[in-house]
Amino acid sequence: MLVLTRKLNETIKIGDDIEITVVAISGDTVRIGIEAPREVRVLRSEVYGEIQRQNREAVTGEEFSQALKILKDFKIIKKENS
Amino acid sequence: MNNNVYYFAQGLPGFEDLRRFRLVEEEGVPFARLISVEEERIGFILIRPALLFPDYGVEVDDKSAETLKLNPAANEAGSANTNLDEKQNINVDIWAIVTMNKEDFAQNTVNLRAPILLNNIHKVGIQLILMDEKYLTKQPLIKDKSFSQEQEGAVG
């Protein structure tokens, strides 16, 4: 891994299109600004884990029909004309 | 019926081994079930997010568009990403996974951060993690406070 030291407001360029800026430093928190082309996906690394956990929590098995009935009973869906 | 089976090349986060899911739409409501073909006890409840969140927008990056087999010719020239507007991309259905809270139904949430996109022509799907952090993995399904009162009546 390449390791660089940067100060506040200093930047790092990756290739021609990506620029990373240290925007703010506060205690152990660093705010980072990222400029990248729109086709480059930028995600906090833990987001994938967050989605994994959410999917595991959302899984329903045999209680499916029950769950659906509840959703219908509570009229969670607005009528289209309202 | 085979024609409602979608192939997820990457599986779903947390269920990476499962590749084939059957979509079972519910009559009269914008809900559906997404059930694993390989592991039938594993399934999800899906909702059409556009009905609850009219401004909900999904931007598909190039790589995901490829996985979804979106026709590049349909994209505007010069635009790197595909703005997935259901009117423009009638082949792609946008769903979101509902998380049921069994103790308190007012706490049911919907995952707007990672919608399920289904290409109903090519029968492929992905769960796309959106970059936009304004979309929550636990967006409350109901904002209306009267819901919990209504719930007690309905349950009792």
Automatic annotation (TrEMBL), chain A:
<dbReference type="Pfam" id="PF02599">
    <property type="entry name" value="CsrA"/>
</dbReference>
<keyword id="KW-1005">Bacterial flagellum biogenesis</keyword>
<dbReference type="GO" id="GO:0005829">
    <property type="term" value="C:cytosol"/>
</dbReference>
<comment type="function">
    <text>A translational regulator that binds mRNA to regulate translation initiation and/or mRNA stability. Usually binds in the 5'-UTR at or near the Shine-Dalgarno sequence preventing ribosome-binding, thus repressing translation. Its main target seems to be the major flagellin gene, while its function is anatagonized by FliW.</text>
</comment>
<keyword id="KW-0694">RNA-binding</keyword>
<keyword id="KW-0963">Cytoplasm</keyword>
<dbReference type="InterPro" id="IPR003751">
    <property type="entry name" value="CsrA"/>
</dbReference>
<dbReference type="GO" id="GO:0045947">
    <property type="term" value="P:negative regulation of translational initiation"/>
</dbReference>
<dbReference type="GO" id="GO:1902208">
    <property type="term" value="P:regulation of bacterial-type flagellum assembly"/>
</dbReference>
<comment type="subunit">
    <text>Homodimer; the beta-strands of each monomer intercalate to form a hydrophobic core, while the alpha-helices form wings that extend away from the core.</text>
</comment>
<comment type="similarity">
    <text>Belongs to the CsrA/RsmA family.</text>
</comment>
<dbReference type="GO" id="GO:0006402">
    <property type="term" value="P:mRNA catabolic process"/>
</dbReference>
<keyword id="KW-0678">Repressor</keyword>
<dbReference type="GO" id="GO:0044781">
    <property type="term" value="P:bacterial-type flagellum organization"/>
</dbReference>
<dbReference type="GO" id="GO:0006109">
    <property type="term" value="P:regulation of carbohydrate metabolic process"/>
</dbReference>
<dbReference type="InterPro" id="IPR036107">
    <property type="entry name" value="CsrA_sf"/>
</dbReference>
<dbReference type="GO" id="GO:0048027">
    <property type="term" value="F:mRNA 5'-UTR binding"/>
</dbReference>
<protein>
    <recommendedName>
        <fullName>Translational regulator CsrA</fullName>
    </recommendedName>
</protein>
<keyword id="KW-0810">Translation regulation</keyword>
TrEMBL record, chain B:
<comment type="function">
    <text>Acts as an anti-CsrA protein, binds CsrA and prevents it from repressing translation of its target genes, one of which is flagellin. Binds to flagellin and participates in the assembly of the flagellum.</text>
</comment>
<keyword id="KW-0810">Translation regulation</keyword>
<keyword id="KW-0143">Chaperone</keyword>
<dbReference type="GO" id="GO:0005737">
    <property type="term" value="C:cytoplasm"/>
</dbReference>
<comment type="subunit">
    <text>Interacts with translational regulator CsrA and flagellin(s).</text>
</comment>
<dbReference type="GO" id="GO:0044780">
    <property type="term" value="P:bacterial-type flagellum assembly"/>
</dbReference>
<dbReference type="GO" id="GO:0006417">
    <property type="term" value="P:regulation of translation"/>
</dbReference>
<keyword id="KW-0963">Cytoplasm</keyword>
<keyword id="KW-1005">Bacterial flagellum biogenesis</keyword>
<dbReference type="InterPro" id="IPR024046">
    <property type="entry name" value="Flagellar_assmbl_FliW_dom_sf"/>
</dbReference>
<dbReference type="Pfam" id="PF02623">
    <property type="entry name" value="FliW"/>
</dbReference>
<protein>
    <recommendedName>
        <fullName>Flagellar assembly factor FliW</fullName>
    </recommendedName>
</protein>
<dbReference type="InterPro" id="IPR003775">
    <property type="entry name" value="Flagellar_assembly_factor_FliW"/>
</dbReference>
<comment type="similarity">
    <text>Belongs to the FliW family.</text>
</comment>
